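2024-03-11 09:14:02 DEBUG pipeline.ingest accepted 1 chain
2024-03-11 09:14:02 DEBUG pipeline.ingest length=304
2024-03-11 09:14:03 DEBUG pipeline.predict start
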Amino acid sequence: MGTADNLTERANAPRAAGTALPVGELLARAVQLLSASSDLPQLDAELLLAHELRRPRSRLLSHGAEPVPPASVARYHALLRRRQAGEPIAYLTAEREFWSLRLMVDPAVLIPRPETELVVERALALLPERGAAAPGRAVQVADLGTGSGAIALALAAERPGWQLVATDRSRAALQIARANAARLQLRNLEFLEGDWCAPLAGRHLDAILSNPPYVAAHDPALAALRFEPAEALSPGPSGLEALAAIIAAAPSVLRPGGALVLEHGAQQGPAVAALLVAAGFARVGCYRDLAGHDRVTEAQWPES
């Protein structure tokens, strides 16, 4: 057996069954174990141990000699094996930060990404800050395909005077979103089960927002996302199917002058803009994420 195999063997096994291990030694072994499968083995090792011990990472680094009980060592190694197999940290720790909110996530929902915060930024820029769209009426906004509730919850926290509604056809996803709202004590929103705009019939909204699935069905990138729900990633062969459905349905529930804000793939901006123009939208504009990729396209339903 070669040196690398010996290192992996030592990293996988505690000193002896039922033996406590110091934090520093446990982390060193974890980093060795993850080094071949993770781009950030040190960070992953620290995040998982902090999660297991329910302690901040800073305490781990300052208390390297502190013993970790055998039961925690065993659970930690189980998490490391799952991470080694490619399972995302967010699912292993059951949480992800978005817009400075700590959200619960599980494999029923897509893991919120930083680029989706651009949808929140654009909604805040487009709509009245104080919450009143007109005298006596609050701003009304829908988040379609809400998943963990990330977009709707971020806006509910920023604008308590707004009325938000979040839709998703996945009952399991809505359970996560509702739990996040309760955990964050956000009450200015409701959750409805159904496909895109279908649960919103009869409403008149100031804005519709969505981060729908937009990866083409045969895109090689899906292999790296295999732990996340397929229906939240790919809508069909072109990747534009969900975006087209939302664009077609949005006018029936938008007020005149209402905004539609859509996240999409880095190469899909022109196609999304063309769909919006063909559907009758005006003031179409595309915005780039922090990586410089076209990421969010917005448009306005005409006033008349």
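2024-03-11 09:14:41 DEBUG pipeline.report The mean pLDDT is 91.
2024-03-11 09:14:41 DEBUG pipeline.predict end
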